[in-house]
Amino acid sequence: GIQVEQSPPDLILQEGANSTLRCNFSDSVNNLQWFHQNPWGQLINLFYIPSGTKQNGRLSATTVATERYSLLYISSSQTTDSGVYFCAATTEGGGNKLTFGTGTQLKVEL
Amino acid sequence: GAGVSQTPSNKVTEKGKYVELRCDPISGHTALYWYRQSLGQGPEFLIYFQGTGAADDSGLPNDRFFAVRPEGSVSTLKIQRTERGDSAVYLCASSLNPYRAASTDTQYFGPGTRLTVL
Hints:
The complex is a heterodimer.
Chain A: E1 4-7, E2 10-14, E3 19-25, E4 29-37, E5 43-48, E6 52-56, E7 59-64, E8 69-74, E9 83-91, E10 99-100, E11 104-109
Parallel strand pairs in A: 2-11
Antiparallel strand pairs in A: 1-3, 3-8, 4-5, 4-9, 6-7, 7-8, 9-10, 9-11
Chain B: E1 5-7, E2 10-13, E3 19-24, E4 31-37, E5 44-50, E6 53-56, E7 65-68, E8 75-79, E9 88-95, E10 108-109, E11 113-117
């Protein structure tokens, strides 16, 4: 099955800083989603982005499908951005199940 | 409308007991998924329903795990003879229709049920 790798595994930022999280995947994808898992465990949808670029407020994401990676950009980080960020993908031959990466643990400090 | 809901939010049971976990998907979503998340890891796929039928159950770890969705809406995940290794957060997700158009494949997750087997 598809392999999904995320980097960095951990990240500590000062409030107001910018960051880039990376997701590499080993196969062509039908669906690629970015999630934020808050400290209470809820997975919050950030982007559905199998290709192209999207922006939502301080967050934006870019997926380069031909090179099998996706990037999540967080600008002007806030303490509420803390948590774990996951990317997850489905593939043509893998059905509709999402395969998750191992996540990036982000902590934003004052 | 309302998001995906799961009950109970927490379940503590003893080794060997039977448990049922319930998922209410977003109204109108035809696809429903169960995942399991262990501490420090990403969620792992268990089973996927399209309508009432299990379209893919390849992630169920063994025959102690079973899930149903009899009317194509609510789903129940059933675990027999629970073991300590079953302790995890069980997550449910739904999507509108994964075959209609790409964007309807977006999966929305519930808050999860934290299962602890003593």
